[in-house]
Each structure stands twice: as C-alpha cells, then as structure tokens.
C-alpha cells in the first residue's frame, strides 16, 4: 500500500501513514489516532524499560513518595500506565505519577470519541472539547505481571468507526450516553479499521494493519521514531511451535488434549515433534508466532469455558493481524472476527497463527476428519 521508496529513504511510521493518506487508504483523522497511540506506546515503552529501577526517574511526583522499592514502583507504574489511554490527558493523576506528560493520552489527539480499556469497567466518552469520531479499544499493558521479572509485555489496540446509529453528540443523559458508548465499542472485529500491538521487549516494536497487510516498526530512541523494519509480514502456512499454558492440561477437553498430544507425538504424519514456547504474555507469544509460524492458544477449560482472553481488545485485534498476514484467528468453532461482543469485557477462547495448525485444531475440536 506504500509507494516505492528509494533504498536510501528511511520509511518511518509517520511517512508510512502519509503514504497511506496520499493513496486514500486511510484519512488524516485515522492517521492522527494511530499517531497518538504510537506516541502513548513510546512513552509506555520508555517507562516499562525503567520499571525495575527503584524510585525510577519520572515517577517522582505527589503520588510517589521517595524511596519506593522496585516492586512497589513497578506496581505503581503499571497502575499509571494502565489508566493512560482512557484519561482526559491533563498530565495529572496516575499518568503523571507514571512520569507521563500532558498530551500523551488518546483523548489528547482530539479524534477519539469513545475509549474502552481493559482497565476501565465501562467505556469512557472523551469530553466534548477533545471528542472526535473514532472508537478505540485498548489493552494498555497486557501481561503486566511479567514486568517485575523483566519479561516482555505489550499494548494491544483496535480502532473502529462509531456505530452509525450511536452518535453521542449533544447527549446529556449520562445513562443514555453510556448505553451508546457501549454499543459503539461492541462491534464485530470485521468492522475494525485498524488493529495493532506494541511489544516492549529487547526492542519496542509496533505491528499494525489497516486492512492492507501487516507492517512492523521498530522504535529508534536515537531519533524518537518508529522505523519500518518488517514490511508486509506474512505468517508461514505451517510452523513448528505451539504456545499454550500446558499447566491447564488437566482442565482441557479431551479433544483439546488430543490436539496437543498429536503435536508432541506426530508419528501419524511422519512429522517431527513441535517445540513448546510460552512466556505468558500474549503480545510476546503472538509476535513470535506471527514471525516464525505455529499456533498460540488459550482454550476454554473446565474452570473457564470461555478461556481467559478478552474478545474486544485481545482476541479480535490479534485475529485481524493474523488474517491480514495470511493466518487465522478462531475460537475453535468460529472465526473470531465474526463475533459481535455482547459485553465490553467478554472472554472467548483464542487460537491464532498459521493456517495449517489452526485448521487442524478446528477439525479436532469439531470432531471432523483432519485436513
Ligand atoms: P496464564 C496475561 O495476563 C494474559 O492476559 C496474556 O497476556 C497471556 O497470554 C495470558 O494472560 C497468560 O495467562 O493463565 O497462562 O498465566
């Protein structure tokens, strides 16, 4: 979707978005929302990298007495970062405590109308002065329990147009307004205009799609820009890695157990046993699956029939990315992007990654003949 660039021209997220606007793939309003998300992720990445430093620079402030230990500073940071996206950003409150300045939050870009965050019970309508068109769903710090151990964490986001019949313009009844906000965010993943994640790991990597393929940008702190590092990512049709929390094995269905066992003992197709990789952080596990192939799964089980992951801001954005890269995103019984959420924090089982592994899983779970 981007015009040919000379080999010497640095392609950044900014120039990539400008290209998309020039080619009328996206409009400048959507580009502004994506840029504001990228800015928030730059700040989150910078603070995550310093989470383990006791009384980290930038955490000093009214809410953070001096001398906090690394663990407490990390917890405080997580609280501050998780509240980030839904704030009317005036640089106060938990965001300031997390060392973030004014103008970082999504509200500040002036194009966002409603924000649904993993950390907010209900969607937040951006106040009139800042309010714009778009609906943003956001998991600001997925896998945050890993921060204290220095293991990769990530942010996941999706952007929708508001539902046609759900304008919140000139609404004054808070009850009515909230109902419309919920309707605005509860849209099927098929309606996503943009889906993406940012991985905070050995590098800060932003991966996103606007429906024309998947592109990855690596943050260069020297120039403060996301540089195009992974143009047009394609997931291998078949991989060699599965990524499940096998600690839940005994709670899985018999079919689910049969599937994992068949990857471990693949005599029947004369293959080699798969490798197991699982860091307990969806963005890290998904990013490795996207680049190397294979399957990531969080099944439903005897304790949680719908599994643990949230449809709106984990499963749907990751499924759009998987499909745009030539893979699949499934609950085992249906395509994730077809599901219309009934509640903001609804959970669904998620299996995503290479086509072969996901289709094989669907056939086993549905008791159909194997592909
Ligand atoms: P478990 C993190 O809490 C998360 O939401 C995902 O990032 C991750 O894939 C999953 O839960 C890990 O859950 O039950 O395996 O620890």
TrEMBL record:
Ranges of residues in domain Fructose-1-6-bisphosphatase class 1 C-terminal: 235-365
Keyword Magnesium included in the entry's annotation: yes
Lineage: Eukaryota, Viridiplantae, Chlorophyta, core chlorophytes, Trebouxiophyceae
Name this polypeptide is given: fructose-bisphosphatase
Pathway(s) served: Carbohydrate biosynthesis; Calvin cycle
BP-aspect Gene Ontology terms: fructose 1,6-bisphosphate metabolic process; fructose 6-phosphate metabolic process; fructose metabolic process; gluconeogenesis; sucrose biosynthetic process
Source species of the chain: Chlorella variabilis
Portion held of the full protein: 69 to 439 of 440
Cofactor(s) this protein requires: Mg(2+)
Enzyme class: hydrolase
Family: Belongs to the FBPase class 1 family.
Catalytic activity of the protein: beta-D-fructose 1,6-bisphosphate + H2O = beta-D-fructose 6-phosphate + phosphate
């Amino acid at each position: 979707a981007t015009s040919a660039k000379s080999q010497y021209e640095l392609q950044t997220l900014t120039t990539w978005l400008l290209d998309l606007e020039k080619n009328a793939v996206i409009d400048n309003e959507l580009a502004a929302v994506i840029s504001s998300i990228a800015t928030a992720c730059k700040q989150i990445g910078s603070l995550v990298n310093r989470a383990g430093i006791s009384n980290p620079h930038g955490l000093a402030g009214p809410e953070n007495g001096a001398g906090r230990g690394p663990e407490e500073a990390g917890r405080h940071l997580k609280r501050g970062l998780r509240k980030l996206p839904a704030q009317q950003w005036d640089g106060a409150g938990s965001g300031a405590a997390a060392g973030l300045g004014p103008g970082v939050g999504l509200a500040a870009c002036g194009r966002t109308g409603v924000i649904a965050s993993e950390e907010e019970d209900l969607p937040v309508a951006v106040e009139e002065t800042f309010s714009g068109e778009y609906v943003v769903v956001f998991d600001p710090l997925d896998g945050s329990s890993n921060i204290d151990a220095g293991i990769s964490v990530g942010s996941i986001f999706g952007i929708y147009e508001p539902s046609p019949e759900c304008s919140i313009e000139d609404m004054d009844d808070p009850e009515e307004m909230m109902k419309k906000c919920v309707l605005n965010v509860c849209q099927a993943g098929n309606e996503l205009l943009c889906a993406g994640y940012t991985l905070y790991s050995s590098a800060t990597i932003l991966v996103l799609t606007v429906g024309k393929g998947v592109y990855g940008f690596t943050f260069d702190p020297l120039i403060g820009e996301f540089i195009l590092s992974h143009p047009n990512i394609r997931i291998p049709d078949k991989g060699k890695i599965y990524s499940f929390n096998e600690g839940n094995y005994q709670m899985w269905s018999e079919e689910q157990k049969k599937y994992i066992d068949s990857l471990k003992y693949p005599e029947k197709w004369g293959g080699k046993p798969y490798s197991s990789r699982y860091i307990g952080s969806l963005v890290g596990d998904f990013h490795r699956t996207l680049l190397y192939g294979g399957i990531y799964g969080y099944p439903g089980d005897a304790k949680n029939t719908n599994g643990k992951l949230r449809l709106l801001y984990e499963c749907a954005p990751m499924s759009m990315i998987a499909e745009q890269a030539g893979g699949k995103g499934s609950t085992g019984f249906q395509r994730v992007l077809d599901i219309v959420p009934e509640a903001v924090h609804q959970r669904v089982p998620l299996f995503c990654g290479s086509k072969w592994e996901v289709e094989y899983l669907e056939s086993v779970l549905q008791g159909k003949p194997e592909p």
